[in-house]
Write a structure and sequence with these properties.
Number of helices: 10
Number of strands: 12
Structural class: alpha/beta
Distance between the termini: 46 Å
Shape: globular
Low-confidence stretches: none
Largest sheet: 5 strands, parallel
């Protein structure tokens, strides 16, 4: 029987206690970047997964290619249901699985994959609080090299996406928020240093609540209790909240934190600033 989740986050101790359990699938969703702003290049971190290690038994989930829609103008556009079903089934995920996702950064990539799973109606998924950094720093076991094959066994159940949920905001929704036609608090999750020195204006009316304000630098884990709530003091009472960043990754950290706090009407602007700048400011993503 698959382990039961009670929160969008699981601790390193929880994962250590359940590692190897039936129907538990652990996914490394790390992505590495080079450059800032519109000069950013995103690369799969599979080599690092093999050469620098991963949680034993974890499979590498490629957000750059396998879990993003191909041939789009905006990086990391969410995949369609058929592509998502195929990609996660190839990683050994079925509808009976419990999935734990992590990355080797501050959690933006694992949070994005968590959000994608939920948007396709799959709730038995959580993010490893503190990610691989916390796991490794605590001296927990690390495997070097490739993991065992994630190819589905003969006769293994398939993965079928559930009913699509409205967890994503598009450009038109964000415009309606800026004009007041359909109010929502707009939350910028990306730090200015990531956006570069000479970027076009961010979305008007935004409240900056960066990943750095949500994650404890001493542990790489989310802040707890009132400290987390305090970070969202300016927007937490808004009926609807739309989070965004550069490409819709750090935005998912804010969305996850808001979910932990119990906010039920949160959307992530999937195109985020790459799309906003292209459509509103005439910028072209490299």
């Amino acid at each position: 029987m698959a382990p039961v989740l009670t929160s969008p986050l699981v601790s390193t101790q929880w994962l250590a206690d359940h590692l190897g359990a039936d129907e538990l699938v652990v996914l490394d969703a790390s992505v590495h970047t080079v450059g800032t702003g519109l000069d950013t290049v995103w690369r799969p971190a599979h080599d690092s997964y093999e050469q620098h290690g991963h949680v034993p038994g974890a499979h590498y989930a490629d957000l750059v290619t396998d879990l993003s829609a191909p041939h789009t103008d905006v990086p990391f556009t969410r995949p369609g249901a058929e592509q998502f079903e195929s990609a996660v089934h190839a990683l050994g995920v079925t509808n009976a699985s419990t999935v734990v996702v992590y990355d080797d950064s501050v959690g933006e990539w694992s949070a994005r994959l968590w959000w994608i799973f939920r948007s396709f109606g799959f709730d038995s998924v959580a993010v490893l609080d503190g990610g691989f950094t916390k796991w490794r720093d605590e001296g927990r076991p690390v495997r070097i090299g490739s993991s065992s094959s994630a190819a589905p066994a003969a006769g293994q159940d398939s993965f079928l996406a559930g009913e699509t949920r409205e967890l994503w905001a598009d450009h038109d929704r964000v415009v309606r928020a800026t004009t007041g036609e359909q109010p929502a608090a707009l939350v910028l999750a990306a730090d200015e240093s990531v956006l570069g020195d000479d970027h076009p204006p961010v979305i008007p009316g935004s409240t900056p609540i960066t990943v750095g304000s949500l994650v404890d630098p001493a542990t790489n884990a989310y802040r707890k209790g009132q400290a987390l709530a305090d970070a969202f003091a300016e927007v937490i009472d808004s009926e609807e909240i739309v989070t965004y960043c550069g490409v819709g990754s750090a935005a998912c950290v804010d969305a996850l934190a808001l979910t932990v706090l119990g906010h039920e009407r949160v959307q992530v602007y999937d195109g985020s600033l790459v799309e906003w700048w292209r459509l509103e400011a005439g910028s072209v993503a490299s």
